[in-house]
Amino acid sequence: MIKFLKRKVRQIKRKYNLIKLKLEGDKYKQWFGSKYGGFYVRQEILKKSGQVIVYSCGVGKDISFDKAIMRKYKKCEIYAFDPTPISVKWIEKKWLPKNFHFYPIGISDKNGTEKMYIPKTFDVSYGVFNWNNENKDEIMVEMKTIESIAEDHGHKFVDILKMDIEGSEFVVLNSIDFKKIEFGQILVEFHERFLENGHKVLEKTIAYLEKNDYECFAISDDFEYSFVNKRFKTTEVNK
């Protein structure tokens, strides 16, 4: 009962944030992926040619979002990242098309190796925060910044940045130099509940995105946020 009430309070707060952010363009949003692994996307700013680039950070055992994008945009290129051992093994057993590129590395605010805590639940992705006392297992993994990944692949623009990395999203998003890399949309599940003063960290992160011209246009029932690059809201770039 207590967990149910806490969830309801969280839902109310999120819905308040939805209004507070002065959301626009809801009529354009469309859901891609499963109920628990999907996000809202604004299709009208994606390229009609289908040559869409997606960075999918945090795979876990659910690539329904990536599959939905690949079905819709046949020429898209998915770059997926997750160093979680169970996720790596799960991906290795899957038959995936050539345009799905998987890398067993984590996303951080710096390049190098970093301690990672292994989640006990098999359907979640990695995290660098030991927010659950039961998460005792830890390993060292390779980490890269978004900018470094983009430079490695020669990308100056990425259509969609999708992020579900169990609390690390705050450090990563606040460290991105948007002068070096630009996104059409940023889709992220925030885990502020894992952090002390998490609501303040969330507000700071949203403010940083807004400062760099990314505006929230949708929040799902499970609190996945979707941001759109303001530059593309009134510009037809989907030719």
TrEMBL record:
<dbReference type="InterPro" id="IPR029063">
    <property type="entry name" value="SAM-dependent_MTases_sf"/>
</dbReference>
<protein>
    <submittedName>
        <fullName>Methyltransferase FkbM family</fullName>
    </submittedName>
</protein>
<dbReference type="InterPro" id="IPR006342">
    <property type="entry name" value="FkbM_mtfrase"/>
</dbReference>
<dbReference type="InterPro" id="IPR026913">
    <property type="entry name" value="METTL24"/>
</dbReference>
<dbReference type="Pfam" id="PF05050">
    <property type="entry name" value="Methyltransf_21"/>
</dbReference>
<dbReference type="GO" id="GO:0032259">
    <property type="term" value="P:methylation"/>
</dbReference>
<keyword id="KW-0808">Transferase</keyword>
<feature type="domain" description="Methyltransferase FkbM">
    <location>
        <begin position="74"/>
        <end position="215"/>
    </location>
</feature>
<dbReference type="GO" id="GO:0008168">
    <property type="term" value="F:methyltransferase activity"/>
</dbReference>
<keyword id="KW-0489">Methyltransferase</keyword>
